[in-house]
Amino acid sequence: MDQPGYRAKAFLRRAADFIWPPRSLVSRERGAGKGPLTPDEFTRIRFLDSAVCDRCGTPHGVDAGEGAVCAACIARPPRWDRARAAFVYDPSSRRLVLDLKRSGRRDGLATFGAWMARAGAPLLAEADMIVPVPLHYFRLASRGFNQSGWLAQAVAREAGLPVILDALRRTRRTPTQGGLSARARRRNVAGAFTVRRPAAARISGRRVLLVDDVLTTGATLAACTRALKQAGARQVDVLVLARVVREVDVTI
Q1: DSSP letter string over the chain?
Q2: How confident is the model over 214-240, as pLDDT tens digits?
Q3: The domain spanning residue 121 has which CATH number?
Q4: Which candidate, 154, 180, 201, 167, places its Cα nearest to that of 36?
Q5: Burial letters 16-35, b for 16+ CB under 10 A, else e
Q6: How far does Cα 217 stand from its chain's mean position?
Q7: Rounded CA separation 154/75 (Å)
């Protein structure tokens, strides 16, 4: 490591934090703590870095051991191979996700990438590449960004893996999934994704890590997984920033 260069960068980071104190990702207040969250805000986030279902990433009530699978996934296995989430999507974490998803707030991306890399460490250890869930062209043009692409790049920087931002294409403009039942979500995105021809050769026979912002029912991720496996992907794992957890969770 270049020690003088490292020390210079560390000094500049500390100077920047002194002049422009970090703004809390939740309260938006400056100087509320040394990190992106205050200690109280941090303790309210339900992180999912242990004791989760190996297939869908939902938390187990007790640590059932490595590779344990929940009853819902035994009854109806998801299309993907494994899934992990950094934290639970709930009232305490909602603002973190919505500020990124709807407002395009990027100052939390490095933190989110580190959280996701920690939760998805076993998946990243086996992945050959990272692929984000795409937006339809018109939605991307109107919004100006794809938050899943940003998250994929943040995770890739943490893991040192290649990311193919345009590997998947959304072939039709689907209505928003918000407010739809699990069955309606599946119908909404059925056949809505395909792998772009230039990316197909890179994906065939490889292990792909599919990245998105939130896992609710898993309909979108399942549709993307199907497209990737049809293109020859050897394995498709899923890594998201947050996932919804219900008392009786039905992921598929």
Answers
A1: --HHHHHHHHHHHHHHHHHSPPBPTTT--BTS-SSSS-HHHHHHS-B-SSSB-TTT-PBPSS---TT---HHHHHS--SSSEEEEEEE-STTTHHHHHHHHTT---TTHHHHHHHHHHHTHHHHTT-SEEEEPPPPHHHHHHH---HHHHHHHHHHHHHT--B-TTSEEE-S-PPP-TT--HHHHHHHHTT-EEE-HHHHHHHTTSEEEEEEEEESSSHHHHHHHHHHHHTT-SEEEEEEEEE---SS----
A2: 999 899 999 999 999 999 999 999 999
A3: 3.40.50.2020
A4: 154
A5: eeeeeebbbbbeeeeebbee
A6: 14
A7: 34
What domain range is 60 assigned to? 21-243
d(CA 243, CA 249): 11
Structural domains in the chain (count)? 1
> If you search the block for the tokens 């039905």, which residue do you land on?
250
Specify if 251 maps to a domain.
no
- Give the tens place of pLDDT for each residue, 113-149: 999 999 999 999 999 999 999 998 888 888 889 999 9
| N residues, the chain | 252
CB–CB of 87/116 below 8 Å? no
